[in-house]
Amino acid sequence: MSVVEHVREMAAAGLHSNVRLLSGLLLTMSGNNPELFSPSQKYQLLVYHADSLFHDKEYRNAVSKYTMALQQKKALSKTSKVRPSTGNAASTPQSQCLPSEIEVKYKMAECYTMLKQDKDAIAILDGIPSRQRTPKINMMLANLYKKAGQERSSVTSYKEVLRQCPLALDAILGLLSLSVKGAEVASMTINIIQSIPNLDWLSMWIKAYAFVHTGDNTRAINTICSLEKKSLLRDNVDLLGSLADLYFRAGDNKNSILKFEQAQMLDPYLIKGMDVYGYLLAREGRLEDVENLGCRLFNISDQHAEPWVVSGCHSFYSKRYSRALYLGAKAIQLNSNSVQALLLKGAALRNMGRVQEAIIHFREAIRLAPCRLDCYEGLIECYLASNSIREAMVMANNVYKTLGANAQTLTLLATVCLEDPVTQEKAKTLLDKALTQRPDYIKAVVKKAELLSREQKYEDGIALLRNALANQSDCVLHRILGDFLVAVNEYQEAMDQYSIALSLDPNDQKSLEGLQKMEKEESPTDATQEEDVDDMEGSGEEGDLEGSDSEAAQWADQEQWFGMQ
Description:
ubl conjugation pathway; mainly alpha; elongated; disordered C terminus; cell division; Serine Threonine Protein Phosphatase 5, Tetratricopeptide repeat; 74% helix; TPR-like_helical_dom_sf
């Protein structure tokens, strides 16, 4: 057995560090004495050495060695016979045991994608003749074409994957995401469904995700629910994660959290979708749960975007926007297609006053997820923050036309209309339509309450809020109800509502301020006595104390920041 065959055996056995050391030494020997190894042996050594570099994540070095290997292969193709080796046993025929040139090019493309050089990856794979492309090459090409916006080429490659492997479900999702009709995709799998038992669920699965990618959340939810209940797919983690995401898109945060929790119980190591789950928990003020979730995800893997996004949500809702910005950027670095990371970074930039930079991130999120309303909401908030009401109105109208007239799009359009005194009546009509469709939709209730507050119709607002709170409990709704009750002098019940709001979200500053104001008004005599005492003691001390608290808080923030580095 020759030394090259020993290298090949070690590579097959996964002894990458050993292969790297030995092949490196042998290549140096070959460089000093070109006659030592035959061209085919040198080609093998270069490929095995490059593979070991790839395994060590030294992608640029691996590309260099793969390129040298391909050049060596060209030299091989020009000779009909292999030169005998002078330093080893009898050489093998050229065609025997040689690493595939196609596989080498695929590995090079993998290196380029890891280096974020997608154009180079496409170029190397495009150089492989169509008939020689394996399913994994077509799959990689399809994903790269999709990312580059070459939709037609992407569709062709995904279809080629399905032609070779009709049960390639991710290829099916890729086609559906590129607006290929569900019926056309299903027709490509019909033969396999009929020939293999227990695959009758696949056609309904395709139908469900066709609804997902057309933005029809209601029918997608109904189809996946029936798929889960009526088949052997009960308690499937992927389906539960899809349901959770669909409920989130539909604005049903309660059911979304419930499904995420179910999925998490079934698979404690689940990462996919946990960024959305963390965001929902943070919005509800459950920051301790968010922090625990982030720690758990980091223990599973810090090479995914989700843990960074969850920690970023904790920072964002703790009003530590610089920290949230850093964590969002880190998540995007790990996964440039993470919509939740883009939204986190965009929101942090917006709250830091860097609106134009935020707009770029929200637009990229829209490009990646054109059916997600929260991407448009973020962009419209940026327009409103920069007083670009016209741009906000154009965008809201486009969303309304594109995603259809549902409670969410109606509310979004009404939100923009509320910013212009001329369109107040239109906002009222839109909100009434939204609440007719979904009386429990919190964002619509909040905006309608805002409108009634402007008109000083407090009794109507109280009735609206009581009705909305009949079947759900939400911090913001309880707090707004407290504000309305104060306006009609119902102080005791207002205090109760503020207390409920704080029990749901202890960090809600507005509820805390409302409660403190009520407590002061409840005991005016005590307040007067306290003022007299303050006057006797001197008027400068309280301000000094407040300054000390503020300074201490700043130092505490800095300590937290450095502690997380």
